[in-house]
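ZP: hey, is the NAP complex queued? I don't see it on the tracker
AM: it wasn't, my bad. submitting now with these inputs:
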Amino acid sequence: MTSDGRFRIGLLGHGTVGAAFAELLPEHAERIFVLTGLRPELSGVLTRRSGSFDELLERSDLIVELIGGIEPARDYVLRALRTGRHVVTANKQLLSQHGEELWETARSEGVQLRFEGAVAGVVPVIRVLQESLAGARIDRVHGIVNGTTNFILTEMARTGMTFEDALAEAQRLGYAEADPAEDVNGRDAAAKMAILARLAFDTPVHLDQVRYEGIEQIKPDDLEYARELGLGLKLIGTAERIGDGISVRVHPAFLYPGHPLASVNGPFNAVTVESPAITEITMSGPGAGGPQTASAVLGDVISAMIPPASTPPTMSVLEIVQDVVSAFYIHLEVADEPGVLAAVAHVLAQQDVSVKSVVQRGLGDQARLVMVVHAVPESRFAAALEQIAGLEVLRAPPRAIRVLEEEFG
Ligand SMILES: NC(=O)c1ccc[n+]([C@@H]2O[C@H](COP(=O)([O-])OP(=O)(O)OC[C@H]3O[C@@H](n4cnc5c(N)ncnc54)[C@H](OP(=O)(O)O)[C@@H]3O)[C@@H](O)[C@H]2O)c1
C-alpha cells in the first residue's frame, strides 16, 4: 500500500466477472475505507488486448485474477505471490490442477490466496469450510455446484423437454456458455468438488482424481418415471471419507424429497456439509453471474486487506477410494412376456442386489420396468447390469442412475 493509505488492486481480465468487479469496487470504496483504514482503487486492468502484467504488478498491492484457464493465469498468480502480493481468484480449473503449488507459495511468502468465487459463486462455502468449520471433522460434502446443469435438469423435469432443448433454452437465457461442454459433461463440477474436498479433508486432491459423469444421456422419461417413485434428479458432487480414504465424484443422482438438495432448482447452487459435530448444514444461492461472482471476489479483497487467513498445509495423503457404495435407479425396456421380472430379479439376487421399489408398464408387446435398488458396491451393481444387458428379453440397453438415499429431518 502507498504511504497515503491507498490500496492498489491490479485487475487481470475484464470479461463477465472482471468488468462487474471494476464497477463494484468504487461503489464500496468508502465503506471499505471505514472498515480497513485503506482506500482501495484499481491500479490498472490487463486484457488480451491491452496492458502489461509486469507494469501492473509493479504498481499493485493485490492482484485479482479473472482471466480463467491455466496459462498465463498460473504464471501471473505465482509471480504475484512470489513478489509478496495477495491474490484473489475465481479460477476453479487453475486451483483444481495447480492448487498445491499455489497454496504452498502463498504460505511460504506469507501472503493470502483467496478464492471464494471459484466454487458456487457467491455462496460462501469456501469461507465456511476454511474458517467457520475449521473446528469440525467433516465426513461428507454434497454439492449442486453447476448452475447450468441444474437449470437444464429442472426444465426437463418441469416441462418434459429433451436435454438438447433444455440446453438451448439455457443458452438463450444466458445460463449456459456458447461452448457448454465442461458444464454438461461434469468437468466443471468436478473441478469445484476437488477444491471442496481439499478444504474439507486437508489432503491434496487433483481434478484428475475426480471421477465425473455428465447429464447428456438423461432422457425425459427417466425424470417422468422417477417422479412416480418420489425421486428428483440432480447433478451431484460428492466428497466423502470412506474408511481411511476419500472418494470425490460427480454424477447425476436421484434424491428423495427430504434431502436438502432436492428443492434446489433452476440455476441455483447449494452445498451440504455433514459432520458429527454439526449434523448437516446447507448453503445455497446464485452459483454464477458477473455481479454475483464479483461480490464474492470483492469480499475476498476486503478480507485480504484485514489479515490473516490461509489454506492450511495438507495433513496427510489420503487414499482415493474407487469402489463406493450407491443405490441405483434402473430403467429397462423389455419384452412383455411372463418371467421377465423374475429373470431380472434372479440376476440382481445373484449379485446380492436387493430391490427397493418397482414400476412396471405395458407398451404393446414391450414393457418398461423401472426399479430402485438398495445401496451396493458399484462394482457389484456394474456386474449385475452387464448381465441384465445380456438378457434376451431386453429391447434396449439398460439405463442406470445413482440414487442418494439420505433424507434429513
Ligand atoms: N462468469 C461467471 O459467472 C463465473 C462464475 C464463477 C467463476 N468464474 C470464473 O471467473 C473467471 C473469469 O470468468 P469470466 O466469465 O469473467 O471470463 P470472460 O468473460 O471470458 O473474461 C475473461 C477476461 O480475461 C481476459 N483474458 C483472457 N485471456 C487472457 C490473457 N492470456 N491475457 C490477458 N487477459 C486475458 C479477456 O480479455 P479480452 O477482453 O481481451 O478477451 C477477458 O477480459 C474464470 O476463472 C471463471 O471460471 C466465472
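AM: back. The radius of gyration is 24 Å.
ZP: great, adding it to the tracker
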